[in-house]
Amino acid sequence: MFDNIGEKIKLVAKVNCAIIAVACVICGFGVMFNSSFLLGLLIMAAGVLVGWAGSLVLYGFGELVDSTTVLRQAAEKQQAQSAAPVASTPHAAAESKGYSLSSMAAQRQSTVNGWVCKKCNKRNNTTAMFCSDCGTSR
Ligand SMILES: [Zn+2]
Over the stretch 54-63, which tens digit does the pLDDT of each residue have? Predict the structure, then answer.
């Protein structure tokens, strides 16, 4: 019901302007024919002017509400965008976790492929307890 309130205010402003103008023109016609033509004309002109001026203020207010809504939506959108990097932080953490996982996999791979002798740097079988080249204990 209160969605697009700026649009509604602007619509009310237009309707308000029309109603006041029409009412004053009718009233002015009445005065014109019953008493003074000039007074009737004055009422008409004043009515149209007052209706227009009042609607202008109301229309301006509607425009203001409209732009405020747009600004607020833009701000909310920006806020959501600035919140996105915060949300991506766990992703970055997962990425670094993935990296450590892959390094763990590399470590496991090296144990699968065997072990490197600390004395002669020969790669030995995983099951071997001593270096096949120099006999150094694992
Ligand atoms: Zn060795």
Answer: 888 888 888 8
Q: Which domain holds residue 37?
A: 5-117
Inside any domain, residue 29: yes
Please give the distance of CA 46 from its chain centroid, rounded to a whole number.
45
What is the tally of structural domains in the chain? 1
Residues whose beta carbons lie less than 5 angstroms from ion ligand 1: 117, 119-120, 122, 131, 133-134, 136
Model-wide pTM > 0.70: no
- Name all contacts of 99-103 with Cβ < 8 Å and 24+ positions apart: none
pLDDT of 90 above 60:
no
Domain assignment present for 122: no
